[in-house]
Every structure is written in C-alpha cells, then in structure tokens.
C-alpha cells in the first residue's frame, strides 16, 4: 500500500469513527509507544558502563 492510499484510508477512518473510537485508538498508540520505550530502557539499564562505552568505538 502506498503512502497516499494509507493516508486516505486513515483520514476516512478518522472521519467515520466516533469520538470514543478515536480516543481508544489514541490510548492504544500511547500504550504501544510506552511499551516500546520501556523495552529500550530495560535493555540499556542491563548494560554496564564498559558495555556502553563500547558502542562509541569505531572499527
């Protein structure tokens, strides 16, 4: 699906959806974003300072 088609379908969804449906969708997006950022924080917190300094080295 190309970008324009996706945009059109999303706009159609927003135009036809009730306020409750849009609010539920926005809550879903917030929760999803929080889960993804939580996974990154967990991964980073599991690394030592030595591991973190390794990421700046060039080969």
Approximate strand percentage? under 5%
Number of helical segments with 4 or more residues:
3
Tally of separate domains: 1
Radius of gyration: 19 Å
How many distinct beta strands? 0
C-alpha geometry: elongated
Order of helical and strand elements: HHH
The main sheet comes to: none
For this structure, the quaternary state is: single chain
User: Could you say which structural class the secondary elements and strand pairing correspond to?
Assistant: mainly alpha
Mean pLDDT: 79
Low-confidence stretches: none
Topology:
Elements: H1 3-16, H2 19-45, H3 49-54
Question: In words, what does this structure look like?
Answer:
There is one protein chain. With 59 residues, this protein is mainly alpha-helical. It has one domain. It has 3 helices and no strands. Helix content is 80%, strand content 0%.
Task: Please supply descriptive tags for the structure shown above.
single chain, 59 residues, mainly alpha, 3 helices
């Amino acid at each position: 699906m190309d970008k324009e088609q996706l945009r059109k379908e999303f706009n159609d969804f927003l135009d036809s959806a009730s306020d409750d449906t849009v609010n539920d969708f926005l809550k879903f997006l917030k929760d999803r974003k929080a889960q993804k950022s939580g996974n990154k924080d967990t991964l980073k917190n599991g690394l030592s300072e030595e591991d973190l300094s390794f990421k700046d080295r060039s080969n």
